[in-house]
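Worked problem 6 (solution included).
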Amino acid sequence: MVRGLFWILAAVLLGGIVHLSTVLAMPQAAKQDAYSRLAQLTPVNAMMPLATTKAGAEIMPFMDPAFAAAVCRYDLSDGPLKLITPVSQAYTSVTFYTRRSVAFYAINDRAAGRRTIELDLMTAAQHAQVPEDEEVTAADRLIIESPTTMGLIVLRALAPEPGLMPMARQALAAATCRIQSQ
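Solution. The predicted structure is:
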C-alpha cells in the first residue's frame, strides 16, 4: 500500500516537473513570436501603425478591436531612442517589450500627465554615458533603461465608440520613434 502511494506521488511529481519545464521553455522555442511576426511588417526604429484587427487574422494574439495600435521595433545598437507620442482623447498606453516578449516598462497618458508622452529609451551602458545636467530634472526627461538592445514598443489608443477610431489612429500616426541625434 505504502509502496503504491510512493509510486503515485513520484509520478505526479515527475509530471509536474515536466509540465513546468515545458511551460517555461515554450517562449524560447516559439518561432513565430510577436517580434518575428512584426519583423516582416515593420522597419527598425520607426513607428508603424497596425492594421485593423479582424477575428482570426490578428497580427498579435488577443488584440482588442476597440484599440488602435502602432509598433516600433527598436535596435539600440546605434544609440538611444527618442519616443514622442501625443495622447488620444480617451486613453493612450505605451508598453516596452524585450526581444523575447517580456514586458519591462509601461506608461499611460494619466501617468504622464501631459498632452504628449516623451521619453528616451537606452541601455544601461548608454545611460551611464549621459552627462548629468543640473537644469534637466527627472520630471523633464523620462529615461527608460532597456535590458536588451532589441525589442518592441507597442502604443495603444482607445476608441470608446467605433466612430472615434479615426481619431485614435490619427493620434498614433503622429507618434515618432527614432535614434537620437548627438
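Discussion: The helical segments are 2-29, 34-39, 109-112, 124-128, 165-173.
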